[in-house]
Amino acid sequence: MYNLARVLFWFIFSVVFRWRIVGIENIPAAEGAIVAANHISNWDPPLIGTAVNRPMHFMAKEELFRNAILRKIISKLGAFPVKRGASDRNAIRTAMKLLEEGNLVGLFPEGTRSKNGMLGEAEQGLAMIAVKTGAAVIPTAVLGTNKVFSSGCWLPRFEVRFGKPIPVGRKKATKADIAELSTLIMTEIDALLKQSSPL
């Protein structure tokens, strides 16, 4: 199902939204890593997941798993649930296990979608997972997905930009380390969002 969905989305993003991918060489070929992106639309997970050339696992809000049919579909696509607004230890353990097994895990450091398209504050969960596992963080910027069917721009051009990996050493997760890494991740995402388009 994963490969079929990827082919379908690749067609949609290529033909309908004329997407652009920048920095794909920054995605590691095999080892575990966190893809940390801004979140402005429900299009973001399939966009990022389709852009990378290996399977990804996204942490998704638990509300999406309440519908039996939807739960079955997104679970087969690699998603796993998280309870928002609280520290979900099960979700954290799942993310850590996936990373330690060498998988790519997609996380949104803001914890929720931005309603105005602007980059918000990071929650601490992503940085904590990175520090505890030592997994590198790939800062990622998504552009255009929040403009679908908006006034004057029904079919915007999508773009996803992958930055250079941020190396993270595995160590005890102190508050200072987590805060410092969170700030660095958001700074890198912001820089990617402000880069001029290559075309």
Structural account:
Helices cover 37% and strands 17% of the residues. The protein contains six helices and seven strands, in the order αββαβαβαβαββα. The chain has helices at residues 2-16, 44-51, 68-76, 89-100, 125-133, 175-194, and strands at 20-22, 33-37, 56-61, 80-82, 104-107, 136-143, 159-162. α1 crosses α2, α4 (89-100) runs parallel beside α5 and α5 crosses α6 (175-194). The longest helix is centred in the C-terminal third of the chain and has 20 residues, at 175-194. The termini are far apart. The relative contact order is 0.21.
Give the low-confidence spans.
none
Order of helices and strands: HEEHEHEHEHEEH
Structural class: alpha/beta
Rg on CA atoms, Å: 16 Å
Mean pLDDT: 91
Task: Give the domain tally.
Answer: 1
CATH topology label: Glycerol-3-phosphate (1)-acyltransferase
Q: What percentage of amino acids are in beta strands? A: 15-25%
Any idea of the CATH class?
Alpha Beta
Proper CATH architecture: 3-Layer(aba) Sandwich
Going by CATH, the homologous superfamily would be: Glycerol-3-phosphate (1)-acyltransferase
Shape: globular
- Report the strand count: 7
Largest sheet: 7 strands, mixed
- What is the tally of helical segments? 6
How are the strands ordered across the major sheet? Answer: 1-7-6-2-5-3-4
Percent helix: 25-40%
- N→C terminal distance: 33 Å
How are the secondary structure elements laid out?
Layout: H1 2-16, E1 20-22, E2 33-37, H2 44-51, E3 56-61, H3 68-76, E4 80-82, H4 89-100, E5 104-107, H5 125-133, E6 136-143, E7 159-162, H6 175-194
Parallel strand pairs: 1-7, 2-5, 2-6, 3-4, 3-5
Antiparallel strand pairs: 6-7
Helix pairs in contact: 1-2, 4-5, 5-6
